Amino acid sequence: MTDPLAPGSVIGILGGGQLGRMLSVAAARLGYRTHIFEPGAAPAAHVAEMVTTAGYDDLDALKAFAEQVDVITYEFENIPTEALDALEPVRAIHPNRRALAVSQDRMIEKAFLSDLGLRTAPFAAVDDEMDLSEAIAAIGLPAILKTRRFGYDGKGQARIAEPEDASSALAEMNSAPAVLEGFIRFEREISVIAARGANGDVACFDPGENVHRDGILRTTTVPAAIDAELTAAAKDLAAQVLEKLNYVGVMGVELFVTEEGLVVNEIAPRVHNSGHWTQNGCTVDQFEQHVRAIAGWPLGDGSRYADVQMENLIGEDLLRIPEIAREPGAAIHLYGKGEVRAGRKLGHVNRVIQ
Amino acid sequence: MTDPLAPGSVIGILGGGQLGRMLSVAAARLGYRTHIFEPGAAPAAHVAEMVTTAGYDDLDALKAFAEQVDVITYEFENIPTEALDALEPVRAIHPNRRALAVSQDRMIEKAFLSDLGLRTAPFAAVDDEMDLSEAIAAIGLPAILKTRRFGYDGKGQARIAEPEDASSALAEMNSAPAVLEGFIRFEREISVIAARGANGDVACFDPGENVHRDGILRTTTVPAAIDAELTAAAKDLAAQVLEKLNYVGVMGVELFVTEEGLVVNEIAPRVHNSGHWTQNGCTVDQFEQHVRAIAGWPLGDGSRYADVQMENLIGEDLLRIPEIAREPGAAIHLYGKGEVRAGRKLGHVNRVIQ
């Protein structure tokens, strides 16, 4: 194993949203400085030493950024391949490109998970109307049509309940390659925030139980209402994924709990919204765990010492801050985003349950 | 009560050391941006949006800084009066100047505390040899001669055990006005981190028990080994001080526990090293509590949900990081200071005790 990144080194972070912001704070806590690369407004820059405002197609800016940092990580998986091609010859990127390639494309992701022997929703690639009618015949309805790439928070998705919904769903894909996913009847959705260190150690936080509304995560509650056996199975599954990818860093693994066992919904090669509860229930949270991994530190103690419910503050939820500020046990985390917009994640609150 | 500071407002922080750094992170968590004013190296700037590098005698820089921020606070009490005179006409400063005036001068501080009916060490002003011999006659030996102003971490102090130590002790003061303090026989030193909101509410964290070495705080442990009655008395005392000063913000109150009750050692009108444990034992830590107060928020829930021992990492203690990084329950906080120097505070570790 190589030595940890020297104190005072600079961690480059692609993406300047709330995840980059909380990563930057964690990096500082371990004695590192950070440099944010972000094309748009960057709330992460409020807590970073340096910021580059440039597009992912600005190869000169990317190269200059890479030269100014000691290691590169990212807060989102949809980084264009050309940008990675510009960065990687200059500095190491963690998690690695294999993890990005797998998670950037729902077809590749599902094929990867299936190859590992893990269960996913039934799926089929859909490029045109003929693919779609074949996929519907094979998978059945209801089903969900999703773009293969660039989907997040329920965007790029269309539900097909009846055969006559098919053509409008396909139109919503805007000619982008898509995948039809069979509908999973699940009891609950959980996620495992898993970390793998540079030395190959794996550590998982306790699974949280997620509730979504309109395709956006609303709450994560730990512990999830699952037994010890299922908890262990969920962590084992996540560890398998990390090891297969030779992964370094934190990954979010979303799982459905079904009558037939665990089904993988999706994996995200980064810190994850459903892991925000770790900020107030663990000695080492998901952000520090990620920094530890990519900086070559040993993984930290992520054992849970409190029950927590995380609630996302979305759009006008922000108006409830004065009330939440008075609530005992409520830890508020705001993202410093200028504009309140419907459906926009503006903060979260972790409620510590004694 | 006025409205809270609007989201996205800028909090100006005088001083760019570790306290300013942790204040800056707390401010960001509540949706604020920060601007650090610091003459020297500023590790706080790693997690702040803006930084002004200028001296406290640069009145133009101070004025420009004040105009760019919405409220001013500070991480240390030794701000020159001239600097305050330049800042205050432009923006509000919290905590207020009365609190600064009292804590900047040990004589004024002791007189203030005595007027409140609180016990302090016996004390007498010492400007020259005659004062000193009179003070020794009145107070007795052993005693400690301290500069009235600008002392910290044991600096500007000389112990007088025998009468013949007097002249060398006085020489150490470098002609600065001084104060002789009688020696207090104490069972333990505790400190109360107390906060007062803009609405007059007062909240105190549980008292921590401090151990010093070479004049520098080494550890703070909560809970302190004191009974409920003494805990209540310590909190009441701190509340009295805050109310008398019409204080807004967090204050550190150091107390000796003696056979005759509580004796006030000193007060610091800012977040305090002995309050760092709150980062890992409370939903709202001392840094956020301070930001809440100066931004006009309600005070947060500072109740303790874990036992914690905070250990300062001083000088070569930093070499123990690889070992501490492997310790279960250890939360590491490094300050991003470039140079490892003996006696320099470089970080701390909070050990959560289950």
Summarize the SSE layout with pairings.
2 copies of one chain form a homodimer.
Chain A: E1 10-14, H1 18-29, E2 33-38, E3 50-53, H2 59-68, E4 71-74, H3 81-87, H4 97-104, H5 106-115, E5 123-126, H6 129-139, E6 143-147, E7 157-160, H7 166-172, E8 178-182, E9 188-196, E10 202-204, E11 208-213, E12 216-222, H8 228-244, E13 249-258, E14 261-268, H9 286-294, E15 307-314, H10 321-324, E16 330-334, E17 345-353
Parallel strand pairs in A: 1-2, 1-4, 2-3
Antiparallel strand pairs in A: 5-8, 6-7, 6-8, 9-10, 9-11, 9-13, 11-12, 12-15, 13-14, 15-17, 16-17
What coarse outline of chain A follows from CA principal-axis ratios? globular
Under the CATH scheme, the architecture of the largest domain in chain A is: 2-Layer Sandwich
Q: What is the typical, i.e. mean, pLDDT of chain A?
A: 95
Fraction of residues in H or I helices of chain A: 25-40%
